[in-house]
Amino acid sequence: MKRYLIQVGTVTYAIKGRDLLRRKGFKVKIERKSGEKTYGCGYAISLEGDKSEAVELLRDSGVKILDITEIN
Question: How far apart are CA 27 and CA 39, in angstroms?
């Protein structure tokens, strides 16, 4: 299964998004991201599962997504 890092604007969005996606049955956790491609607060939601469904749920809930990276 593919894994994605969904970069969000604040740690509050990361927590809100993690909790929402867990309730919907996704396997997620919060990661602190550092390096060249870091946006906002540097926190990202690590997701295993259907990216499009998760992104739609997050956006509908008002979570601001800054970037999505696929991790192999």
Answer: 23
Q: How far apart are the first and last CA of the chain?
A: 9
Name 31's Cβ contacts closer than 8 Å, sequence gap at least 6. 5, 43, 44, 45, 46
The class of domain 3-71 in CATH terms is alpha beta
Structure tokens at 13: 């969005």
Where are the domains positioned within the chain?
A: 3-71
22-52 confidence digits (pLDDT tens):
999 999 999 987 766 656 668 899 999 899 9
